[in-house]
Every structure is written in structure tokens, then in C-alpha cells.
Amino acid sequence: MTLIKGAIAIFRRDIKKFISTPYVIVFTLFMPIMYLVIFGNAIGGTITGIHIGVVQSEPYTVETPLFAQSVEALRNFRSAADKPTVFDVTIYPDENTAKLALARGEISGVVVFPSTLPDDTTVRVYEDSSDYAIPALMEGGITASVASTGATKPLAINQIYGKIEYFQFFGVGVIVMAIFMTTMMGGAFALIRDREQGIIEGYLVTPVKRSSIILGIIGSGTVKAFLAGFIIVIVDVVVAGIVIRTLDQFLLVLLVLAISSVGVTALVVSVASRFNTQQEYASTVAFFNLILFMTSGAFYPPQGMPDWLRWITTINPEWYTVHALRSILLRGQGLTVIGYDLIALCIFSAAAIILGIATYKRTIE
Amino acid sequence: MSDEEIIRLEHLTKVFRNKHAVTAVDDVSFDVRKGEIFGLLGPNGAGKSTLIRILTTLILPTSGTAYVGSFEVTKGAEDVRSIIGVCPQNSTLDLELTAYDNLDFYGRLLNVEDGVRDARIWELLKMADLTDRANSRVSTFSGGMRRKLEIVRAFLHRPLILFLDEPTIGLDPDSRFEVWKQIKDLNTAETTIILTTHYMDEAEKLCNRIAFMDNGRLIALATPEDHKRALPSGDLIDIGFDRLDERVLPALRDSGIITSAEVKEKTIRISARNGNSVLPQIIGIFERFSVPMTSISIRSPSIEDVFIHLTGRKLDSGEGEQPQPATRGRPA
């Protein structure tokens, strides 16, 4: 009987504590629902709106029926009758312009139609092979569209970045997760623990400034996050077979890691600066981790997500990090392509730091 | 503020609004003079710690104003923090750091110059008798060692004003004695000290002036001597008995040698000036009515008696206890 009595006492205590923290309850229930919504939509969803370019090869004399009919077929290509069209087709005046757009990442593939009609000439396809799912989808769609015109042209596929395994694709995405996880457990956690254990009461009565506290926490968190991200880069190189070709690339990767670490740490710290308990903090940050990682494109292209989720990617620092890292590591691109990502990350970091300082409570009420 | 005063409270009030409003500090006004040791006395929940937290800029008053140094605590919070040292009631040491690192961390936050910080830390470690444990984690320290470390940390930067919230709580008599010595030494160096305690002897030994707080209100403020002088009578004589003859009490009161006599359970408490000389006569009265005495005690009134006189109950009886609504975190 004493066994049962003791068990009941522990049970009662825990239930009492549980129902006295409504915030945590909501988030605990919210999490699986968000998983369902985000995972379900992100992965089960149909990928639509893939940007592709089409061009008719030189010498360009007249628009061939093959070209006209195939483009029409591509524009109307759907995975099912009730779904939106898969491709967003742009016609380019010449092959070089189209390939440049592909190299810049503005489009996912280029289809070059032959200007003469003999059956043995091929339809050339250049695809961005650094993406997941999209190359396969493009190949299927293009084959079907060309076949629908009655032509029997063979497809010549060129993977412009070579064959990239999912392992490598995902490996780059995991770098950003390492940064986030380290930040979650590192910098901001110290802030919450100080508050929860009452240590904060000791240093809040010193002349230390609110901004000093936040900058210090973000600084230490950034160093930890950077190291974690760097270790995953090494793992990617050693295990996943990602190649860093030049010193410039290596330095660019470090730059992206550093700016991303500041941004993500600042975000988590600004969330933490209002919370009093580890539970509240942990449930909120786990939610952030889920939504930011899912929409970062780290393991699935955001083109498959519904609009409202895709909208999140535009304000998601992890999206810019993943994009920048893939540009450098998988596509061998440089500052001209990732400059935009870096600017976005800097703006984001600055905003998060300001938010963190502004919301930090200098009193203990 | 005049040159004499270093802290001034004007109608300071703090109401905590959680499920129901709790008035922790209720319209308190007083001054603290430069260089004195000022004691805040009262039972648990009297509002002492809340008052200290307002004065140290940790919480905002609901109404009223307070000046620390020449700065108002809400508008000049940053200036206030630069002239105070605080030893809070609950431990705020970082248990994962060593004793030295704890002091070093605060030395940097408190802007102790790089050139003197190390020497100052060792000086304080020696004062706290922790020199040989300087590089041990604080988590391995006993309660007394932690408390001493926390106290010396408060005056690392030689603050103008030192707030000590229950500095000797949970310490053994030896350690308490050491802490008292430290406090007195500091005070000779012209540091003004504000001390909260619910130990009578501590307040009586250390403080130049004592303010009594109860239920958030200031109920009396004077020097220990003046507090005692305010008591209506001199010495206190307690005589225990098993069965009292009803004639004893009127006889005592009519004798003219005592100022008051009251029966409480199996004790009669008599107040009388010059207790030592009137005691034989009092015993004579008991013997006259053949009432056997089980015990006799005689003593001068203490600060505790002043509190009992003012509030009608003992200081640590726990009556009138209020929940401590201050911070989430370690239990107060």
C-alpha cells in the first residue's frame, strides 16, 4: 500500500504542476499539431511553380511546331487534373541568356529545342542538380510534354552541378540545424537559468547595462553555434563527400556560418529574454526550431509547400543560410549569388539583437 | 536631502497584483543617515526584502519615491546601481564557477580596475577565510562558506551604501560572529549599511538605529536604547507557578513596587523598575499566600520585547506571515 500511496503523491504533484502552467500545455499540444500541418504540407504537398526556361537553338529561323506545342504542353502540365500547373515557363531569346539565368539560380532548368526537325536531334535539358525532387520532376514533365506533341525526340539530360546525392543535399541543411540546436542549449539557456535560479538578482544590481547582458549572451552563444556549424561542415566533407574547392569558398562558408550564428542566436535570445522558466522557453524554442527548420528548405524544396508556409521562408534566416551554403558548397557559386542572402541575414541579425535588448527585463517582477 | 541623509523614502508603497493584490510595502517614509548601520527588523513577510529590492532598483515602487545617494530609484536607476553593494537574501552565486571566478565576474561587472581587481579578490577571499578554496567550485561549499562569499562580494567595489538582506541567516554562531565583525569593520570605513534581519541580538549589537516593520508598514524607528526606553516599564520578571491564589495579583498590583503584572498561562509576567531590588519583596508576596513558585527569571528588556510591546506578538512567531511575491526562482 505504501507503494501506491507514494505513487499517488508523486502523480498528484505532477498533475498539479502541469495544469498550473497553461502556456506549456498549449505548446505541448500545439507541437504535434504543427508537425502534422507542416510536415504534412511540406512533404506530402505537390511541388508546383517550378521556374524553367525554354529556348530554341540557333540558327533560329522560325518557331518550329515542336517548340510551340511543347511549350504549350509544359505550361499546362499538371500532376493531376485538379492541381495547379507544375511549371512556370519563361521563353528566352537565346541559349546563353537562359543558361546564365540557370547559373544564377533564377530558374531550375533550361530546355533547348532543336531548330531543325530531323528525328535524331535531341532536346537538350540543363538542370540544377543541387536541388532535391525538382530535377526528377522536371525530367518527367519535359518527357511527357514533348511526347504529347507526337514527336519522338530523345532527351539529353545535363546535370550542371554533377550528380548530387540526397545525403549531400541534406548534409548542407543540417549545418543550420546544428547552429540552432547549439544556440537553443547554449547562450539563451544560460539567460533563463540565471533567471530561474535567481542568480540574475545578483548582477542586476550592478551597473551592467541591459544591452551589455544581451550582447554578451549573444556573443558567447555565437561562438558556440559557429563551432557547432563548423564541425558539421567538416563532417559533411569527410562523410557526405562534399568538396570545398578553393580557399575563397572555404572563407565564404565561414562568413556565412558566422553571420548565421549571430542571427539565429540573437533570435533565440530575444525569445528567451522574456521568459522566466526553462519549460516555457523550451516549448517555445522547440516550436521555432520546427517551423524554421521545416521551411528552410534544408531537407525538402519549399516549392512543395502551401503559400502561407512559403511566406515564412522569406523571413526565415535559416532559408538564407541554407541557400547560401548550397550555393557555395554544391554549386560552387560565389559572393555575387549569395550577396543577397548575406544582406538578408545581416538585416535579420540586427533586428533580432535590437528586439532582444528592447524586450529584456531589467527588473525581476 | 541634507548632507546627513543618504537614503530617503517618501510614502513608498508596493502592491503586487497577482491573483489578489498584496500590499508588501505600505506608505513607508524614513531617512537613513550617512555612515550609520541601519536595521530593518520585522517578521517574515513584513516587507523588508521588497523594500530592499525597490531601493536596489530590482523592482519598481507602485507609488511614492525613494532617493539613494542623490538619485531617485526609478529615474536614476543606473546611477543608484553604481554606488550600492547588495547581498541579497537568496544566494545569487554561480555554483558552477569557482569562488575566485564568482568574484572576478562581479569585479568586472562592477568596474573594479584591472590593476587592482586580483589583489582585491584575494583580500576578500582571505577575509571570508576561503583562500585555500579559491579555485573550488561554489557548489562544493557549505551554506556558511557560500554566505560569507556572497557577503564579501557585495563590497568588492567599496560601495558607498551596502544593503545586506538577512546576512547571517542559516549561519552557525562562529560564522555569525565573523560576519558581524566584517560589518563593523566596513562601517568604520564610512560605508553606510542597511541591514535586514529577524535576529534581535544582531540588530541590537550592530545597528545605530532600528526600524520595525510589520505587514508592510513602518511601526517604529529609533536607536535601540530609545526603543527600550519607550517601553512602559523596566526589567521583566517571569514567575512560574502550578496553581495561583487569586489574591496574589491584587496584592502585587497594590504593593506599589511594580508597574504591571499579567498572567499568561502558568506564568506571571511582572514589569518593574530596578527588578533586582524588588524581587525579594515580590517573592515575599507569593510566600504570604503560600503559592509555590516553579521558576523565576529576571532580565532587562530586549529589542524583542519592544516588538512584542508594539505588535502584541513575538517576532518570529510566524503570525501575519504573507506569501513572498517577489521573484520566481529560489524560494524566499
Distance between the termini of chain B: 33 Å
Give the class of chain A from helix and strand content and strand pairing: alpha/beta
Largest interface: A-B, 21 and 29 residues
**Strand residues, percent of chain A:** 5-15%
Strand order of the largest sheet of chain B: 6-7-8-3-9-10
Helix count, DSSP H or I runs of 4 or more residues of chain A:
14
**Main β-sheet description of chain B:** 6 strands, mixed
Tally of alpha and pi helices of chain B? 11
Low-confidence stretches of chain A: none
Description:
- The complex is a heterodimer of chains A (365) and B (332).
- Chain A has helices at residues 2-19, 22-44, 65-75, 95-103, 134-148, 166-185, 187-196, 199-203, 210-240, 247-272, 278-294, 307-314, 317-329, 335-359; strands spanning 50-56, 87-91, 109-113, 123-127, 155-159.
- With 365 residues, chain A is an alpha/beta fold.
- In chain A, helix 6 crosses helix 13 (317-329).
- By secondary structure, chain B is an alpha/beta fold.
- Helices cover 33% and strands 27% of the residues of chain B.
- Chain B has 11 helices and 14 strands.
- In chain B, strand 7, helix 6 and strand 8 (192-197) form a beta-alpha-beta unit.
- The longest helix of chain B has 16 residues, at 173-188.
- The two termini of chain B are 33 Å apart.
- Classes of the chains: A alpha/beta (365), B alpha/beta (332).
Descriptive key words:
heterodimer, A: 365 residues, 2 domains, five-stranded mixed sheet, 5 strands, elongated, B: 332 residues, alpha/beta, six-stranded mixed sheet
Sequence-ordered SSE layout with sheet pairings:
The complex is a heterodimer of chains A (365) and B (332).
Chain A lengths: L1 H18 L2 H23 L5 E7 L8 H11 L11 E5 L3 H9 L5 E5 L9 E5 L6 H15 L6 E5 L6 H20 L1 H10 L2 H5 L6 H31 L6 H26 L5 H17 L12 H8 L2 H13 L5 H25 L6
Parallel strand pairs in A: 1-2, 1-3, 4-5
Antiparallel strand pairs in A: 3-4
Helix pairs in contact in A: 2-11, 3-5, 6-7, 6-9, 6-10, 6-11, 6-13, 7-9, 7-10, 9-10, 9-14, 10-13, 10-14, 13-14
Chain B lengths: L4 E13 L3 E13 L3 E5 L6 H8 L7 E6 L2 E2 L4 H7 E4 L11 H11 L4 H14 L15 H12 L6 E5 L7 H16 L3 E6 L2 H7 L2 E6 L2 E6 L1 H6 L5 E7 L6 H7 L5 E5 L2 E6 L2 H14 L4 E7 L3 H9 L21
Parallel strand pairs in B: 3-8, 3-9, 6-7, 7-8
Antiparallel strand pairs in B: 1-2, 1-4, 4-5, 9-10, 11-13, 11-14, 12-13
Helix pairs in contact in B: 3-4
